[in-house]
Amino acid sequence: NAGVTQTPKFRILKIGQSMTLQCTQDMNHNYMYWYRQDPGMGLKLIYYSVGAGITDKGEVPNGYNVSRSTTEDFPLRLELAAPSQTSVYFCASSYAGLTYEQYFGPGTRLTVT
Amino acid sequence: GQQVMQIPQYQHVQEGEDFTTYCNSSTTLSNIQWYKQRPGGHPVFLIQLVKSGEVKKQKRLTFQFGEAKKNSSLHITATQTTDVGTYFCAGAGGTSYGKLTFGQGTILTVHP
Description:
The complex is a heterodimer of chains A (113) and B (112).
Chain A: E1 4-7, E2 10-13, E3 19-25, E4 31-37, E5 43-51, E6 54-57, E7 64-66, E8 76-78, E9 87-94, E10 103-104, E11 108-112
Parallel strand pairs in A: 2-11
Antiparallel strand pairs in A: 1-3, 3-8, 4-5, 4-9, 5-6, 7-8, 9-10, 9-11
Chain B: E1 4-7, E2 10-14, E3 19-25, E4 29-37, E5 43-49, E6 55-58, E7 61-65, E8 71-76, E9 85-93, E10 101-102, E11 106-111
Parallel strand pairs in B: 2-11
Antiparallel strand pairs in B: 1-3, 3-8, 4-5, 4-9, 6-7, 7-8, 9-10, 9-11
């Protein structure tokens, strides 16, 4: 199993541009998550999904959108990139909810200039 | 909303010294998880604690969950250079269905 994969690994965007961060898992996990990690700030939840077709906001959803059309894929969309969105983005998945460990992808390092 | 605070933010130790990081929640937790992130890497699950007062050990690592289920600690005995990285606690409360709240992490540096 590849686990959780994310593309791209690195990206530089100009202010106002849009992009989609891809996330795929091959563990048949129901729950998927998007986090952002800023230096010294831990992980902040952006959006999460408890199954195909079901998504909900996390702690910091503004400026982002998600969709979950399949169990495997959970893309994160940035519509109008802003410098405040410069961060490392991690996708994660878990078999179920709170009492199951989360498996993280390798991350996407995004810079908005 | 639920807050999880972790201290210290940084810790420098000499190889062989012990290390402890503490995690405190503003609300009672249903369970707490610990993750380790190596420099440049992604978080990797270490352990989960569920019961009040629970203590679990993994080789040189000892994890504790407080009696009130509002705090936790990770203790590493005789640190090694392979222990370097950031250690995160992540708590789940009764109203945070499907979501973990992560602490800001403790960055551990081990000097050989």
